[in-house]
Design goal:
Its EC number is 6.1.1.20. The chain has 434 residues and is of the alpha+beta class. It has 16 helices and 14 strands. Helix content is 33%, strand content 19%. The longest helix is centred in the middle third of the chain and has 15 residues.
Length: 434
């Protein structure tokens, strides 16, 4: 079917544009074209159609005159027929022309025929969804209608395990290290002798960190069975008590019985020392990292635990400097989504120079301390058997702190320990540093 547009209805009411142009000239006589364009509605289309129909002509001075005295408004009459739904009275050619001129538009109607089917009824039958033991026992299932199974339905999502937020952050940091070309270091032994945990790192036996207030000492076994051979124990004793490799040492007695005491490792740097000792005889430049648990005898509060994870990275090579360390750390933290990094001079027994690392956290709007770094001292490296000229860069941070920032925890006991909400673990998103 067809129906008139708004423009088509205007023509039915007032006449076609070409007829209006002819009538205007009939009243005014020969008329300048500019006058027609100014005073006759839609005169541009009307003049064009009147010229095409041979009703008017334009002289050399742009004066328009009528060629015929009377005209028939076929456009208006055809539109009236269409409006009265007498579509067959109008030729298809005219309808196509009117459609092109946007005077009419084609409309469609969708008709549905509804018939009674085999299961037609005046009431709805309740479909059963379960076959119960009572239905089987009484035989009532024979007269009941059951809802068909939708085998494509997803059903109830089964419960499943979820990665802890710490593990998500650990996996992301591991991926960052691997992308930077690092290899992962073995850190499987949680129990270390004081020799590897303190002495091999040039940490004096009188250092406060070795006190029972800061370290967990084991009672069984209380001491290590043995220490490495190949002269490392003698070199460590010498550099502590007398000095060596350009250092004055600590000028105090070094006691083997203190070095044999077993502890829960206070840092994974003990494993780094063991790793450097093992590669010393056949040294090759390396970049390694580790992410593992360490233990400190600390007072528990919202930001401190006695058991936490340490992230550590070391680079060992010839001819590297503090500038290389700053560059590697900047790259590492930029990949963690913390591009603004500052360094502050600090003291560590086994690194010189040493630096604390601060990053600007946009969410908190302030600078926060995220780790420590430095260049391992010659007293440590030469005692471990590394060749002269080898420099080792190292840095470390807690795994828990970036996890708390990333997932919005204010209290570390909500992240680790018996107060953790299991729903929080299920609902936490994938970790991505950006």
């Amino acid at each position: 079917s067809w129906e008139l547009t708004g423009e088509g209805n205007d023509i039915v009411e007032k006449g076609s544009y070409e007829v209006l142009v002819h009538e205007y000239i009939s009243k005014k006589g020969p008329t300048p074209l500019a006058d027609i364009m100014k005073n006759v509605p839609n005169s541009k289309i009307g003049f064009s159609k009147a010229m095409a129909n041979g009703w008017v002509k334009k002289g050399a001075t742009n004066v328009v005159t009528n060629v015929v005295d009377t005209v028939s408004d076929d456009v208006k009459q055809s539109l009236i027929l269409i409006k009265n739904k007498q579509y067959n009275e109008v030729s298809q050619e005219k309808k196509n022309e009117f459609k092109k001129r946007k005077l009419i538009k084609e409309s469609s109607m969708t008709v549905f025929t509804v018939l009674k089917g085999e299961e037609f009824g005046m009431s709805l039958t309740k479909l059963e969804t379960e076959l119960t033991p009572e239905m089987i026992e009484t035989g009532s299932w024979k007269s009941l209608q059951f809802k068909s199974y939708n085998l494509d339905a997803k059903g109830v999502r089964p419960p499943h395990g979820s990665l802890h937020p710490l593990m998500k952050v650990r996996d992301e940091i591991r991926a960052i290290f691997l992308a930077m070309g690092f290899s992962e270091m073995n850190t499987g032994n949680y129990i270390e002798s004081s020799f590897w945990n303190f002495d091999a790192l040039f940490q004096p036996q009188q250092h406060p960190a070795r006190d029972a207030h800061d370290t967990f000492f084991l009672t069984k076994p209380a001491v290590a069975v043995s220490l490495p051979k190949c002269g490392i124990v003698d070199r460590v004793e010498e550099v502590h008590s007398k000095g060596a490799y350009g250092s004055l040492g600590y000028n105090c007695d070094w006691l083997l019985k203190d070095a044999l005491k077993n502890v829960l490792r206070t840092h994974t740097t003990a494993n780094s020392a063991r790793f450097l000792y093992n590669i010393g005889p056949k040294f090759q430049p390396v970049k390694v990292f580790s992410i593992d648990k360490v233990y400190r005898n600390e007072t528990l509060d919202a930001t401190h635990l006695a058991e936490f994870h340490q992230v550590e990275g070391i680079v060992a090579d010839y001819g590297i400097s503090l500038g290389h360390l700053i560059g590697v750390i900047n790259d590492f933290f930029c990949r963690m989504g913390l591009p603004r990094v500052r360094f502050k001079p600090a003291y560590n027994p086994y690194t010189e120079p040493s630096m604390e690392i601060f990053c600007y956290h946009i969410g908190l709007g302030k600078w926060i301390e995220v780790g420590n770094s430095g260049m391992f001292r010659p007293e440590m490296l030469r005692s471990l058997g590394l060749p002269p000229g080898v420099t080792v860069l190292g840095w470390g941070l807690s795994l828990e702190r970036p996890a708390m920032i990333k997932f919005g925890f204010d209290n570390i006991r909500e992240l680790v320990g018996p107060r953790v909400n299991l729903r929080t673990i299920h609902d936490n998103p994938i970790c991505r540093f950006n």
